[in-house]
Amino acid sequence: MRYGRTVRHIIGSILHDPLDAEECENDTYLAAWRSIPPNQPVSLKAYLACLARNTAVRRLDYNNAAKRKPGEAVLPFEELCESIADDRASGAADNQLGEVINGFLATLKPKHRRIFLLRYWQYLSVEEVAAETGCSVSNVSVILSRTRKKLKDYLKKEGFYHEPK
Question: For the domain bounded by 76-158, which CATH number is listed?
Fold first, then answer.
C-alpha cells in the first residue's frame, strides 16, 4: 500500500510489540474501508495517519490498563502531561481542547510547529526529529521544552490548565 510505511511507523512508534502493531495496522485499514464512503478526506495520508494514531493509542490504553501492565508509560505523553491538565476538572469537551491546541499551534513558527508535531503527533524520538528537521538533538530538546512551557501558559490563559494542589 502506498502509505503503509507511514502507518507502520506511527503505530510502531506508539506500540513496541510487533504483533500488536500488525493488528493495529490491519484495524486501521479496516476502519478506513468502513469510513471512507461517507467521509471524503482531503488527504488520504493524513486520514490514515490519524486513524493509525488513534487505533494505536486505544491499544496502548488497553495494554497499559492497571490489571495488565502497571507502571508503564510513553515518554511523549509524560512530557505533555505537565502542560495539559485533566480537562474533566474544568468540564471542557475534548473537541474544545483540540481547538485550543490548534489555536496554539497556529501561533508557533513553522519550524517549531513541525518539531512539535513530529514529536507529539507522529511520536518520533528526539533524535529522529533532529534528523528529519536538520537540527541538532540539543536544539530540538530546547525547542520542545520551550514549546511545552508556551503550551502550558496558553492553556492557563484559555482555562484548560490548573496548577496541581
Answer: 1.10.10.10
